[in-house]
């Protein structure tokens, strides 16, 4: 597995505290029958060592992971809501 850094965002949480998050595409290898292909997911990590969440093997399509990244970054998704956002997106 490896990670591709996308961007850092500073977001204000529900209590008004400013938090900074790093966003990554995760790149794994997934078995598909007799073959293996790259699969992509997303990881979000709070910069101060707080919560982190990763969802691997979301898609094998570069176009689809780009679409998901635009949604996640544009909406300011945090580690706490990442799984729900991906579930809804799928």
Order of helices and strands: EEEEHH
Question: What Rg, in angstroms, do the CA atoms define?
Answer: 14 Å
Number of helices: 2
Question: What fraction strand?
Answer: over 45%
Whole-number average pLDDT? Answer: 92
Please report the total strand number as a whole number.
Answer: 4
Biggest sheet architecture: 4 strands, antiparallel
Strand order of the largest sheet: 1-2-3-4
Oligomer: single chain
Contiguous uncertain segments of 5+ residues: none
Q: Could you say which overall geometry the principal axes of the C-alpha atoms support?
A: elongated
Calculate the terminal CA-CA distance, rounded to whole Å: 22 Å
The SS-based structural class is: alpha+beta
The helix content, as a percent range, equals 10-25%
List keywords for this structure.
single chain; about 90 residues; alpha+beta; 4-stranded antiparallel sheet; about 25% helix
Can you describe this structure in just a few lines?
Helix content is 24%, strand content 51%. The chain has 90 residues and is an alpha+beta fold.
SSE layout:
Elements: E1 2-12, E2 18-32, E3 35-46, E4 52-59, H1 62-75, H2 82-89
Antiparallel strand pairs: 1-2, 2-3, 3-4
Notes on the protein architecture:
The chain is of the alpha+beta class and 90 residues long. 24% of the residues lie in helices and 51% in strands. It has 2 helices and 4 strands. The protein has helices at 62-75, 82-89, and strands at 2-12, 18-32, 35-46, 52-59. The longest helix has 14 residues, at 62-75. The protein is elongated and about 50 Å long. It starts with a strand and ends with a helix.
